[in-house]
Amino acid sequence: MASDASMVAPLDAHNLALLAKVHPQGWRNPPPAARYNLVVVGAGTAGLVSAVGAAGLGAKVAIVERALMGGDCLNFGCVPSKTLLRSARAAADARAGAALGVTAEPVRVDFAAVMERMRRLRAELAHNDSAERLRGLGIDVFIGDARFVSSDAVEVEGQRLRFRRAVIATGARAALLPIPGLAEAGCLTNETIFSLTELPRRMAVIGAGPIGCELAQAMRRFGSEVTLLEAEPRILPREDRDAAARIDLALARDGVVIKTGCRIVAIEKRESEKLLRIETGGSQAEIAVDEILLGVGRVPNVDGLGLEAAGVEYDRAHGIRVDDYLRTANSRIYAAGDCASALKFTHLSDAHARIVLRNALFFGRSRVSALTIPWCTYTDPEIAHTGLDEAEAAKRGIKVTTFVQEMADVDRAVLDGETDGLLKVHVKQGGDQIVGATMVARHAGEIISELTTATSAGVGLSKLAEIIHPYPTQAEAIRKIANQYNRTRLTPFASRLFRRWFQWTR
Predict the structure, then answer these.
(1) Which pLDDT tens digit goes with each residue over 103-130?
(2) Would the pLDDT of 1 be above 60?
């Protein structure tokens, strides 16, 4: 990870405004307090929520950031990527307008304007994560490299910060692959793609997880010729197989060339283009592109922190080892967010921070295992998930019954022309207790929260069947699933009783 602001480009007015907030030039670190209630290392989502929450409760707090306040989410993740996806969706909608009786041709994408809009909006939102705002909240903000020097102290720029409790929230960075020739040819990651100002004519995206699928679809919709390469037999290998298959069809329909089960043998830079030699099923082929995007996930930032001096256990692949309460091997120190979690989501980092506040500053016993964790991949349509899938339930010895609702049978989806989706809900066998759900729909990420709430609160499908859903909405798929469950309760015996009752009461 870069230790300064060099990864932000181009240095136009918007990025200069961003840097003034998240890595202010000439920032002077304050004199440290004699002792802090909480020292936070890392100012991404987990770190910011921890620091702001603790300060709001009256604690004396320091936060240390070596690069950019706001971390991955603001600078290289959620904010810039979803801004691009919105523009890509607008381009796709314009091209598909004829099916709705609206013609807008020719559709032209001004990629430079798309990227300028992204930089402008990112700079506007940066105030919430800025060093100045945190200082205004009474938090001591230190810009520089933090290094633990004992079990209860961190050093930054020659100053020692002593603490009662600390939280490590250093996040993660783009993972790299040891492909021969990749370093020489060069590649983009999710941290550098947002510095583009010109659209690559041809692009190879390595890795068909969430990052790869989202950006492959967006770049194709902008007009780039995109090839998506995945070593696994299918895209989105962590997702429900049926749901991932719908996304596969959507990407292909947009014109993304998908190659699964392939191995990249080598990459060669030849004049202005990059050649990827791939192997699929024993046969080799070459792909020529102008840019390569590496989207194979993220690895935790744990190097250079002096964790050994603090007695904190970690490994470079999986990050900092924590228990269910997010405590490290040093009971004074907690870890939260991407540096301590296999699941790397902004909303989970937020939830981790809230657990840390309860457990570290008070006498809380909040557990990560008690969380119902949703996530969403923001392709079009989106794929959203909450709780357990069938495989995870089986591993835990939970037998489930699965109900499926096709979006093609949901009136609003039909009216919107967005029928290529589904909703799957898993309940404990013999009852209506929801253990998990997966949804494919244009706004699945918005809709899944109802099922996350129901799962967390112990609200079953029978109760959801009683909830009035506005008609017509795509969220009505949930009510239809609940009605499916209710119909299973009408056993042959109950049906016979009802028939006799109605015969008797006629």
Answers:
(1) 888 899 999 999 999 999 999 999 999 9
(2) no
> Does 13-173+299-370 match 182-296 in CATH topology?
yes
* First-residue to last-residue Cα distance in the chain: 77
Share of the chain above pLDDT 70, in %: 99
- Band of residue 3 on the pLDDT scale cut at 50, 70, 90: very low
- What whole-number distance in Å separates Cα of residue 222 and Cα of residue 506? 66
Residue type, 450: E
Residues 56-85 have a mean pLDDT of 96
Both tokens assigned to 359: 């457990």
**CA dist., res. 335 & res. 121, Å (int):** 30
Q: What is the pLDDT of residue 505?
A: 85
Q: Rounded distance, CA 280 to CA 263, Å?
A: 7
Q: What is the pLDDT of residues 16-61, one digit of tens each?
A: 999 999 999 999 999 999 999 999 999 999 999 999 999 999 999 9
Distance CA 40, CA 335 (A): 9
Q: At the top level of CATH, which class does the domain 13-173+299-370 belong to? A: alpha beta
Q: Tell me if 442 sits within 8 A of 382, measured CB to CB.
A: yes
Distance CA 66, CA 76 (A): 16
A 10 A CB-CB count for 303 gives 10
The Cα–Cα gap between 170 and 51 comes to 13
> What pTM did the predictor assign?
0.93
Contact between residue 37 and residue 56 where contact means Cβ atoms under 8 Å apart: no
The residue type at 253: R
Q: Which residues, at least 6 apart from 411, have a Cβ–Cβ distance to it below 8 Å?
A: 471, 472, 476
Q: Which fold has domain 381-488?
A: Enolase-like; domain 1 (3.30.390)
Domain boundaries, the chain: 13-173+299-370, 182-296, 381-488
The burial of 503, by beta-carbon neighbours within 10 Å (0-12 exposed, 13-18 middle, 19 or more buried), is given as exposed
Structure tokens at 338: 């991407």
Tokens 């919105």 map to which residue?
Answer: 86
Whether the Cβ atoms of residue 314 and residue 321 lie closer than 8 Å to each other: yes
Using a 10 angstrom Cβ sphere, with 0-12 exposed, 13-18 middle and 19 or more buried, the burial of residue 162 is middle
Separation CA 275–CA 297 (nearest Å): 22
